[in-house]
Design goal:
two-stranded antiparallel ribbon; four-stranded mixed beta sheet
């Protein structure tokens, strides 16, 4: 088994029989950063696509063997998929003509091989879910809240510096109203005269006017107090050699504030709502977000819902492990029950209902956490997981490429760069999202957020429910492994119960959904009647849900570099400047 990697692209090369080794290898990998987590998810998706193709190949070979038997060419295909399936003595007598020799044994072997692979791929998705959850848990803790700063004390010190500043007729210190601007001007203007001082004066006057109109004095005092200096000193020192336009000054002020990570934190819902509504229209349409408490409440509730989903999966597979159930299927015996006026196998019927319950739970979760922005567009409460028309994906900022969801629509995840901050701003500029005047509006939003401050309900930002979800996923993997072990020599049973369950699920009244259509969970949208394909599809949705939670955890991590957040990591922040 090998894995070739080029950049972010992955090219798996393993046999289906090596999937156990693949699982052990993937579970052993350490993830210490969000970049490593993203790479792991890409590799997991590549493994799943590759494994699915291997199973499709085996299914195609199985169809051929069931229909016509073995031939020399078919034997080559069988052996390439599962070496050792056909004894050498049998292979020697095969010709280009079909024969029934060793047909039954080959079918049994390939079915067992395929079923083991199908279960293995289901577990493979779960390993990715565990890795995401593990990363969330390892980063731990919720948002720390607002820091405490002496903004008034800072303003007083700046006033004292201004009084002792050597003023000339060419300086504008007496005209400035914003303390942080005044402080930076004192430092930047030292020793300047002539054209250099004129250029600085012009830019400083524009900056002071912008912030005065935004009533930014107290906010900038707090920020300067947290930093121990004005954030604009180095910026203003670069304004001496060239006359700046007002648009350039606003551009630079916005850059400077966002370089200090000032928007990374969790805001009260109403604050987040008003700030989002004040964003330029182009930014709102591009999916730019303001991190607010509602996002974290959504994702915490999702963890609780998913725990119930995995509990139902465990119950279903435990029921399928029961030897008496398998024997009843094999001999067409066992208890029956009435369904839609017909007598059906009770064990299969009951197991199908458990799967139906699991699907209904997952559907409810998806309806809760996936925002469909096809008609109304983005809103302040839009969840990190979004359904969007296929033709609008390219216009998004800070979202992944997504996956096909339903015809014409794509399911995308918001990344940390979708939330207003320096990475988000850079992506908007690169995408040409911003027009003249938009940066002034963005600066006003940043100042407004700073004036309002962060949420005090820090407990609600702790994603600790994911610890219980981690346990639920691990327990489900154990049950799946027990199921595979118990049924490895009974492929006929696995195929039969899978078929019966799928038939039951596809009945109009086969699911207990309380009247809600499975609008979010399409178990077999292409008419695929394979239980395990459906499970993989649904678990892929779960994986993306957990990925959305990981995005919020990334915001919490970035908030630790915000000087306005309690207990911020000043050392890391300064190292990053």
């Amino acid at each position: 088994m090998s894995m070739e990697m080029t950049g972010n692209a992955t090219h798996p090369k393993w046999r289906l029989g090596e999937i156990g080794e693949v699982l052990r290898s993937r579970m052993a990998e350490r993830i210490d950063s969000v970049n490593q987590l993203n790479l792991y998810m890409q590799r997991n998706e590549a493994d799943l696509i590759y494994g699915s193709r291997l199973i499709l190949q085996i299914d195609a070979i199985l169809d051929e063997v069931r229909r016509a038997g073995l031939s020399k060419d078919v034997a080559v295909a069988v052996e390439s998929s599962r070496p050792g399936t056909i004894p050498e003595a049998v292979r020697k007598i095969l010709t280009s003509n079909y024969t029934r020799t060793h047909q039954k044994e080959t079918i049994v072997a390939l079915e067992s091989w395929a079923n083991a692979g199908k279960v293995g791929l289901v577990v493979l998705i779960m390993t990715a879910i565990i890795k995401i959850i593990g990363w969330i848990i390892s980063n731990g803790n919720g948002f720390a809240g607002n820091g405490e700063f002496d903004g008034e004390g800072y303003a007083e010190k700046v006033g004292e510096k201004a009084e002792s500043f050597s003023q000339t007729e060419n300086t504008i210190i007496g005209q400035l109203k914003i303390s942080a601007v005044k402080d930076a001007y004192i430092e930047a203007s030292k020793g300047l005269k002539g054209r250099d001082l004129e250029n600085l004066n012009l830019a400083i006057a524009m900056a002071d006017e912008v912030f005065t109109n935004m009533n930014a004095e107290e906010y900038l005092n707090d920020l300067s107090s947290a930093l121990g200096r004005s954030p604009f000193t180095e910026l203003f020192k670069g304004y001496t050699k060239k006359r700046q336009s007002s648009q350039q000054v606003i551009h630079d002020l916005l850059d400077t504030l966002l370089q200090h990570n000032v928007t990374y934190g969790i805001y009260p819902i109403e604050v987040g709502k008003k700030a989002w509504q004040a964003l330029p229209k182009s930014a709102r349409e591009a999916g730019v977000r303001i991190p607010n408490l509602l996002n974290f409440q959504q994702m915490s509730n999702v963890a609780s819902e998913l725990i119930g989903y995995f509990g139902s999966l465990q119950s279903a597979f435990k029921a399928m492990i029961d030897p008496s159930v398998a024997e009843g299927f094999k001999n067409q015996q066992g208890s029956t029950t009435t369904h839609n006026g017909k007598q059906v196998n009770k064990a299969a019927h009951d197991t199908a209902l458990i799967f139906g319950q699991a699907l209904a739970q997952l559907n409810t979760t998806m309806n809760f956490i996936i925002s469909d922005v096809s008609r109304k567009g983005f809103e302040y409460a839009t969840a990190p997981l979004v359904v969007i028309p296929e033709n609008k994906v390219r216009g998004l900022v800070g979202h992944d490429d997504g996956v096909d969801f339903v015809p014409g629509k794509v399911l995308v995840n918001a990344q940390a760069s979708a939330f207003l901050g320096r990475e988000c701003l850079e992506q908007m500029r690169q995408a040409g999202t911003l027009s003249v005047g938009d940066e002034r509006e963005l600066l006003a939003v940043v100042v407004t957020l700073g004036k309002q401050g962060f949420t005090n309900d820090t407990a609600a930002t702790n994603l600790n429910r994911y610890s219980a979800l981690d346990k639920a996923v691990n327990n489900t993997i154990k049950v799946l492994e027990q199921f595979q072990k118990a049924t490895k020599d009974n492929a006929e049973y696995v195929n039969l119960i899978s078929e019966v369950i799928m038939n039951e699920l596809n009945q109009p009244s086969g699911l207990r959904t309380d009247g809600r259509e499975l609008s979010m969970v399409l178990f077999s949208p292409d008419g695929d009647e394979d239980l395990f394909v459906g499970l993989r599809r649904n678990l892929s949705l779960v994986r993306r849900c957990c990925g959305a939670a990981a995005t919020l955890q990334t915001i919490l991590n970035l908030a630790k570099r915000n000087p306005l957040v309690k207990g911020n990591n000043r050392k890391n922040m300064l190292d990053g400047e």
